[in-house]
Design goal:
heterodimer; A: alpha/beta; Rossmann fold; 6-stranded mixed sheet; 4-stranded antiparallel sheet; about 35% helix; B: mainly alpha; MetI-like fold; 2 domains; two-stranded antiparallel ribbon; 13 helices
Chain lengths: ~250, ~280
C-alpha cells in the first residue's frame, strides 16, 4: 500500500486550565484510510479530534503543547491559516447541526465562503455531495425546504454532504451515529467506506463494533493516553494490552 | 403562614397579580371612555387628518402631531437601530465574557437616567450645536430624533444581546468548522438566527420612542405645524397632551384624551408586532 502519512502528532499534550487532557500523544495517521478511535468517555477522544482542526481554540482556557503536522506542516504554528485549515479538515459533530437555512443553502455555505459564485458549478457540487452522502434521493425534490425539517439521520447526512462540498482532505467524525437509527447509521458507514478512497477519515466512536466494521486502523484511548494503535483486525483479535482487551470485551467502560 | 394555608396563599397572590392587570385595564378604559365619544362626535377623519389645531376656535385636527411623532420616531430608529444592533453584535461576538460582564450593566444603567436629563442635555448641547452648524431654530425634528435614538439604545442593545446569546453555540461551531471566518459566521449564521429577536428589540425601542414625552417636549420645539425639513420645530402627540392638559377644559380636554386613544392604539399595535416576532422565533425551535 502506498499510504503516505497525512497527519502526525508529536508529543501532543492538551490542557484545560490546570487539568491535562492529553498525555503526550505520538501518532502517525495514514492517508486514505479510516482511523477508528475508541475508548471510554472522558478518555480524550473528542479533545484529540477537535485539536486536529483547532476547534478547541474557541474554548477559553484550552492550551496545547507539542505539535500536529498536516502534510508535514505544523498547524499550531502562528503563521498557519486557521480558516484554511478548517476547509482542509472538515468535521461532523455528534449532534447534527444544520444551519437554519434551506437544504441547498446548507450545502453551498462552505463553497460560497470560498468564493464560488457560479450557479451551475454550485448546483453540480450540491448534487455530487448529496449523492456521496447517500441522501440525494431523499431530498432532491425539496432542496429549497428548511434543513431543520429533515429527520435526525437525514440532517446528519446533510451535514456530511456539506463537508464534502468543501472538498476537504481530512474528515473528522465525532460519534456521528450516536443519535441515529440503525438504517441511517448503515448509510453513513457505507458512505465512509467509499469516501476513504478520496479522503483521510478519523472516526471517534463509542461503539466498538462500529470501529470493527469500518475502520482500517484503530486506536484505543484511556485517560488521555494512547494505549494501543494498530490495524483493526489485529487490535480486535489479538490486543497487545490487557486494558484494550478488557475494553473491547466489555469488561469496563 | 399556617392559618393562611396553601390555597389561601394562592388566592392572595392571584389577587395581587390581577390588581396589577386591572390597573392597566382601568387606565385603558378611562382613556377610551373620555376620548372615544369625542372622536365619534367630532368625526374621526376630521380629527385625524385635519391640520387645524385651534382649541379656542373649537378646531381639533391632530394630523401635524401624527406626522411629527412619525418623523421623530423614524429618525430615532435611524439613529438608534443600527447603533444598537451593531453594539449588541460586537458585545456578544467579539468581546470576552468578562468584559461583557462590565459593559452590559453599564448600558442598562443608561436606561435608568431620567428622561428630563436627556432633554436637558439636548437643550444645552445638541440644540445650540444644530442651530450654529445647520441653521434653523435648533429645537427640531433632528434634535428630537438624536436624543430619542440615544434613549432607546439600552432597550435595543439589551434585548438584542439576549437574542444573539440564545443562538446555540453549535451553529457557530458548525459554521467555523466549515472554514468560515469569525465575521462570516456572525453575519451569515448568528445574526440571521437571532433575527426575529433583533426585530422585536427594534419594535420595542420604537414603542419607547413614540411614547417618550419629557425629552421630546424639551428638544423638539413644540410648534404645531407639519415639518418641512428635519430642522423645523414640531410637536408630537405625547407633547401635545402634556403641554395642554394643565389648562384644558370641556371639549379641549376631551380632544386631548382622544389624542391619548390614538397613541394607545399605535403602541398596542407595535407591542403586538413585537410579540409576534418573538413568538415566531419560539415556534421555530
Amino acid at each position: 500500500m502506498n499510504n503516505a502519512i497525512k497527519i502526525a502528532t508529536r508529543d501532543l499534550k492538551a490542557f484545560y486550565g490546570p487539568e491535562q487532557l492529553l498525555m503526550s500523544l505520538n501518532m502517525d495517521i495514514q492517508a486514505n484510510q479510516i482511523l477508528g478511535i475508541i475508548g471510554p468517555s472522558g478518555s480524550g477522544k473528542t479533545t484529540f479530534l477537535r485539536s486536529l482542526n483547532r476547534l478547541n481554540d474557541l474554548v477559553h482556557g484550552f492550551r496545547i503543547e507539542g505539535s500536529i503536522l498536516l502534510d508535514g506542516q505544523d498547524i499550531y504554528h502562528p503563521d498557519f491559516d486557521v480558516v484554511a485549515l478548517r476547509k482542509r479538515v472538515g468535521m461532523l459533530f455528534a449532534l447534527p447541526v444544520p444551519l437554519p437555512k434551506s437544504i441547498y443553502e446548507n450545502v453551498v455555505y462552505g463553497p460560497r465562503l470560498s468564493g464560488i459564485g457560479d450557479w451551475k458549478k454550485l448546483d453540480r457540487l450540491v448534487e455530487a455531495s448529496l449523492k456521496s452522502a447517500f441522501i440525494w434521493d431523499e431530498v432532491k425534490d425539496r432542496l429549497g425546504s428548511p434543513a431543520m425539517r429533515l429527520s435526525g439521520g437525514q440532517q446528519q447526512r446533510l451535514c456530511l454532504a456539506r463537508i464534502l462540498a468543501q472538498e476537504p482532505e481530512v474528515i473528522l467524525l465525532d460519534e456521528p451515529c450516536s443519535g441515529l437509527d440503525p438504517i441511517s447509521t448503515a448509510k453513513i458507514e457505507e458512505a465512509l467506506t467509499i469516501l476513504k478512497q478520496k479522503y483521510t477519515i478519523i472516526l471517534v466512536t463509542n461503539n466498538t463494533k462500529q470501529a470493527a466494521r469500518v475502520a482500517d486502523q484503530t486506536a484505543f484511548f484511556l485517560m488521555g493516553s494512547l494505549i494501543e494503535y494498530g490495524p483493526t483486525s489485529d487490535l480486535f483479535t489479538v490486543p497487545q494490552d490487557k486494558r484494550t482487551n478488557d475494553y473491547i470485551t466489555g469488561r469496563f467502560g | 403562614m399556617k392559618f393562611l394555608g396553601e390555597k389561601g396563599v394562592r388566592r392572595v397572590l392571584a389577587g395581587i397579580a390581577f390588581s396589577a392587570i386591572s390597573a392597566l385595564l382601568l387606565i385603558a378604559l378611562f382613556i377610551i371612555k373620555e376620548g372615544l365619544p369625542f372622536i365619534i362626535s367630532y368625526g374621526p377623519v376630521k380629527f385625524l387628518l385635519s391640520s387645524d389645531w385651534q382649541p379656542q376656535a373649537g378646531k381639533f385636527g391632530i394630523w401635524p402631531m401624527i406626522v411629527a411623532s412619525v418623523w421623530v420616531t423614524l429618525g430615532a430608529m435611524l439613529v438608534g437601530a443600527p447603533l444598537g444592533v451593531a453594539c449588541a453584535v460586537y458585545l456578544t461576538e467579539f468581546v470576552p465574557r468578562r468584559v461583557m460582564g462590565v459593559i452590559k450593566p453599564t448600558i442598562e444603567l443608561l436606561a435608568g437616567i431620567p428622561s428630563v436629563v436627556y432633554g436637558f442635555i439636548g437643550v444645552m448641547v445638541l440644540a445650540p450645536l444644530i442651530r450654529s452648524q445647520l441653521g434653523g431654530p435648533g429645537l427640531s425634528v433632528l434634535a428630537g430624533a438624536i436624543i430619542l435614538g440615544v434613549m432607546i439604545l439600552p432597550t435595543i442593545i439589551s434585548i438584542s444581546i439576549d437574542s444573539i446569546q440564545s443562538v446555540p453555540n453549535s451553529y457557530r461551531e458548525g459554521s467555523l468548522a466549515l472554514g468560515a471566518t469569525h465575521w462570516q459566521t456572525t453575519h451569515m449564521v448568528t445574526v440571521p438566527a437571532a433575527k426575529s429577536g433583533i426585530i422585536a428589540a427594534i419594535i420595542l425601542g420604537m414603542g419607547r420612542a413614540i411614547g417618550e414625552t419629557m425629552a421630546v417636549i424639551m428638544v423638539a420645539g413644540n410648534a404645531v405645524k407639519i415639518p418641512g425639513s428635519a430642522l423645523d420645530s414640531v410637536r408630537t402627540l405625547t407633547a401635545n397632551i402634556a403641554l395642554e392638559m394643565g389648562y384644558a377644559t370641556g371639549q379641549h380636554r376631551q380632544a386631548l384624551f382622544a389624542t391619548g386613544v390614538v397613541l394607545l392604539i399605535i403602541i398596542m399595535i407595535l407591542n403586538s408586532l413585537a410579540g409576534m416576532a418573538i413568538r415566531k422565533r419560539a415556534g421555530k425551535r
